[in-house]
Structure prediction request, 562 residues.
Amino acid sequence: MPEIMDRIREANRAVTTGIDDSAVKHWVTVYIMGKAYRVPADITIMQAMEYAGYRFVRGAGCRAGFCGACATVYRTAGDWRLKTALACQTRVEDGMYLVQIPFTPAEKPAYAIEEEPADGTPLLKYFPELARCVACNTCTKACPQDLEVMDYIQAALRGDLEAITELSFDCIQCGLCAMRCPAEITHYHVAQLARRLYGRSLPVPKHVEERVREIESGVYAEEFERILSLGREEIEELYKKEQREKGGLKSRDASRVTRNG
Amino acid sequence: MPDAKNPSPITHHPSRIPYFPGCALKDQAEAFEESARAAMAALGYELAELPRWNCCGTVYSLATDDLMRHLGPVRNLVRVQELGETRLVTLCAMCYNTLARSSRFVGADPERLERINAFMDEEADYRGGVEVLHLLQLLRDEVGFEEIEAKVKKPLAGVRVAPYYGCMLLRPREVGIDAPDSPEVLEALFSALGAEPLDFPQKAECCGAYQTVSDPEIVRERVREIVSAARRAGAELIATSCPLCQFNLETHQSVAHHPSPITVVYFTQLLALALGVPEDKLGFAGLKFDPRPLLSERELV
Prediction:
């Protein structure tokens, strides 16, 4: 694992440890866990932490705003609000106090989805603490994806699987809602169960049935075997070739589309 | 996607009223909502579901310093204010009670309201003044029982109904929709529908409410008293306005005490039936004790 994290860090070198300080015109001071660091302005919180010497082993992942691993809480100068963000998607500001939340402790209940009724009843069965929601909306304020988190918890209370699915679809499971909730709800686990139940309540689409039939009849067996027999470099080459044929991989940043702006 | 993102536009027409369903009416008590909406449509009213409503709070908090418990109810009142409306109608007696009391609680003390508004800084400040109504108040004070009587298509002639109020519509006095010990709004409604309302001494007593979870024996005792009294008065049906009362009276009615159980309906089911709403919108099939054999004897279904 650390090896992979180092590879990712290397790929980000140009904007972190590789910065030539004499080329930086604007600097800000941020307080990482209370200690002041002078860092280049216009870099992200994650890059700033690496610039300051931190090395991520956990609490960093895709660096593109999709994986939800880099939850951060911070305050900015002159503002009492406790703010939340993804460290890879948020730029440092002068006077920012910040800390990473590398993990949200939460038990994942085990359930056999096929054995649960395809309605709202399993939600309160596995998450009875849902009924502790007082509609304070703190979860919604904490969400870096700008989801209406409280609204889907309220929908869960009345078993409305469709509403939960729609409202929670862009959840990246960063866990900030659960860390802020005074009722100690683990919203993202609730939403995931709801989406699974909702999926079960829908008819299986024709194209899925067809593809499953194809797979079972062995249409793709040969191609799978071939890919599985390739070495790492061969697979990487194959991937690049496919992307070029599709017109992808135009630039390194093509995959860095952010959701928040 | 239901109402969360695309609320039906509410125009300021007097016959279109913001309506708060509550969780039970979307789950256990769908028959209550469906029959009420159909009945109100027959009377020329639209119950327009409040956009982005949340749980009423379920039980009104008696801890006067725990303002957090009032966020839920007050947030619903903010939703009414956002529509530019001043009234909110409820069906569930528990939701009515919680919302009406919370509205008074914050209305009575500007400091409380200020603190709640400061906490809910993502919402517009609640300015107070939203009136929380129960549907029975709307029927009595605005539609009027004479008007309802004039619109009855199937008079419930000879149907003997015991109106069961329970607690939440009547107590405490400041939110009671009628006299706490001798209410008569349900009686007046059923008379207008052509039915025969029966008086019985337990009509405003508690069913045992949430004791059904932790100590169901208490509820069984309460239900036995209530149902026996209604039966002695000659009731064929019991009608209520509370999903929890309905659940308790159905679930804890023991056949050990009497071989034939009494059906417990929502008052809106009888209202809708009398106003000629088609049978498939009355929700009778969802009840534990089906009233249709009785009603078909009277040629009403």
Q: What stands out?
A: The longest helix of chain A spans residues 187-201.
